[in-house]
Amino acid sequence: MLAVTSGKGGVGKTMVTANLAAALAAQGRKVLVLDADLGLANLDVVLNLQPQFTLHDVLHQGLPVHRAVMPAPGGFFVLPAGSGLVEYSRLTPALKQGLQAVVTNVAAHFDIVLLDTGAGISDVVLETVAMAHEVLVVATPEPTALTDAYATLKVLATLQRRLRPWMLVNQATRLGEGMSIAQQMQAVLDRYLAGSGQPAPKLRMLGELPQDEAARLAVRQRRLVLQCAPGSPLAQGLRAHALRVDSWLQPSVSAGASVPAPDAF
Ligand SMILES: Nc1ncnc2c1ncn2[C@@H]1O[C@H](COP(=O)(O)OP(=O)(O)O)[C@@H](O)[C@H]1O
Ligand SMILES: [Mg+2]
């Protein structure tokens, strides 16, 4: 399970998550994306889905989780969040437990689960990130996005002992910009966190993605970048990163080829 998060909003988490999911599905994986941006859930909108049921119905009406899981274009599955979850600025202990149980239950039926989480370091975001084994922090080269990514990395290291977070730089304007940003970020983390006596996280650089008109085209058409602009530099990058995601993610104990998935999914 991989949580995709960011310091600042609007950096491309949903674009990255949905398209990585489609690329992983094309590689033969059974993939679920959970819309875990409980405040600004919009995965269904971006993918032009019309969910009949959502996570809200599962958590509040006792709906069996498989009834809220729906197929998305691109060959993966989506568990939509539902707008009813917007009101929570904090997860109550009961809701947190319920969410954890739902996620654990549903994850057992998939090879890979991606959580499209919210941005920032609020309790809700941190709690949704905490459900995943691995975390990917998305940032853009903008100074504010980098400062916020640093804050996220620092908090995740301190509160969740995330010492090997993955990083992806989206909307790079030149080749290699992502790598140099990751190096700078690593230097800052080493300086400030190691100086405080805490172990500094060691970033695992998933890679960079170019700024590409294909991303906006995809949102306008409510389709995946991989489907509406499969030959674009952005799509090529996404497919390459998906191969790495696949090899970096350890298959979870309960998922994988040895456990047949029920027909319900
Ligand atoms: N690589 C990119 N190049 C150009 N625009 C992008 C790129 N990635 C994302 N965008 C645009 O940025 C906006 C926010 O993306 P989104 O995935 O919704 O961010 P988040 O989920 O982090 O809030 C969208 O309009 C999207 O088209
Ligand atoms: Mg989003």
Compose a concise summary of this entry.
The protein is an alpha/beta fold and 265 residues long. The chain has helices at 13-26, 43-46, 55-61, 93-107, 123-130, 143-160, 177-195, 213-221, 225-228, 233-248, and strands at 2-6, 31-36, 70-71, 77-79, 112-119, 134-139, 166-172, 204-210. Adenosine-5'-diphosphate is lined by residues 6, 9-15, 170-171, 209, 211-212, 215-216, 219, 234.
| Name of the CATH architecture | 3-Layer(aba) Sandwich
What would the principal axes of the Cα set say about the shape? globular
Strand content: 15-25%
**Sheet bearing the most strands, described?**
8 strands, mixed
Low-confidence stretches: 252-263
Strand line-up in the sheet with most strands = 3-4-2-5-1-6-7-8
Number of helix segments? 10
Radius of gyration (CA) equals 18 Å
Strand tally is 8
What is the CATH superfamily classification?
P-loop containing nucleotide triphosphate hydrolases
Series of H and E elements: EHEHHEEHEHEHEHEHHH
CATH uppermost class: Alpha Beta
- Give average pLDDT, whole number: 91
Helix content: 40-55%
Terminal residue distance:
17 Å
Ligand types: adenosine-5'-diphosphate, magnesium ion
Based on helices, strands and strand pairing, what is the structural class?
Answer: alpha/beta
How many structural domains in the coordinates? 1
> Remind me, CATH topology?
Rossmann fold
